[in-house]
Amino acid sequence: MTRRAAVRELLEEHGRTHAGEAGIRMRGTPAPLYQLLVLCVLFSVRIRADIAVAAARELFAAGLRPAFEERALHAAAELGLPKTPGGLARLVDAEDLPKLAAALVRAGPS
Questions:
Q1: What angle do CA 78, 81, 86 make, to 5 degrees?
Q2: Distance CA 55, CA 34 (A)
Q3: How far is C-alpha 77 from the geometric centre of its chain's CA atoms?
Q4: For the purposes of burial, counting CB atoms within 10 Å of the CB of 39, is it exposed (0-12), middle (13-18) or buried (19 or more)?
Q5: Contact 19, 36 (CB under 8 A)
Q6: 73-104 burial string, b = 16+ CB within 10 Å, else e?
């Protein structure tokens, strides 16, 4: 059985994921990965999983985002660099993307 088939079978049997219940739409961008990290941290607390999911959903609805993302994108735009995370990611190797984002935050307006 391929990985894809195994995942499809699991989703057919169980129907949903915690990430989906929390409203996380997985894409290759920093925001959903950050949201997934927040959800994982909430799962590490001694509370029921449904409470962790509900807390994550409320945090995201209230606007919780990685602080560097918006500031980094704003600074990138001011410097004439790509204005999207994907555009910035094409400028550097994947392991250097956090360094680029941090440098943009430091270079941008406070």
A1: 125
A2: 15
A3: 21
A4: buried
A5: yes
A6: bebbeeeeeeeebeebbeeeeeeebeebbeeb
Cα 36 to Cα 46, 68, 85, distances in angstroms: 18, 16, 17
Please tell me the distance from the alpha carbon of residue 64 to that of residue 14, in angstroms, as a whole number: 29
Instruction: For residues 72 and 13, give the distance between their C-alpha atoms in angstroms, rounded to a whole number.
Output: 41
Q: pLDDT digits over 70-80, tens only?
A: 778 888 888 88
Q: Which residues contact 81 (CB under 8 A, 6 or more apart)?
A: 87, 88, 91, 104
Q: d(Cα 91, Cα 85) in Å, to the nearest integer? A: 10
Tens of pLDDT, residue by residue over 36-54, are 999 999 999 999 999 999 9
Who contacts 108 (Cβ-Cβ below 8 Å, separation ≥6)? 71, 72, 74, 75, 78
